[in-house]
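We modelled the chain as a single entity of 148 amino acids. Its sequence is:
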Amino acid sequence: MVKPTTIADVLGEFKGGIITGLVLLMCCCGVSTLVALQLVKEQRDRPGVRAASEAYLTAVVSRDYRAAYDLLCEDDRRNQPMATWKPVQDAITEPTGFRITKVDTEGDSWTVYTTTAEITRPGSPTEEALFNLKKQDGDWRVCNPPKL
């Protein structure tokens, strides 16, 4: 590499180094800041996700299917009218209890959350069910729930 011979050449290299350093700093700090902001958002969202999951499962366990239906995502309500929607399978004993064991984001998405719940039925072993939730119109909604 040829060494600079004029002050303009020296300043040009110095300026290029500063710009490169600033770009690297912005990339490192920008990514870190983005991750930190997403983690804060996730911590803020978790109580609402848990509350919506509990409300849905409480409605199903108490057989208040209208309340459970009202907690579904807009697409689910649009695709299946209340008159034909049923959150439980006909051939299986209806659930009598639940316990939420986990609330997490789904994959790399920060907008879809997954709630894991243990479902109890009389005379049957506890089974695990996964529920996807999305925020719609400011409220958390259960999307495409499994039949219990």
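As a brief sanity check on the tokenised model: Residues 112 and 134 are 5 Å apart (CA to CA). Residues 7-61 form the longest helix (55 residues).
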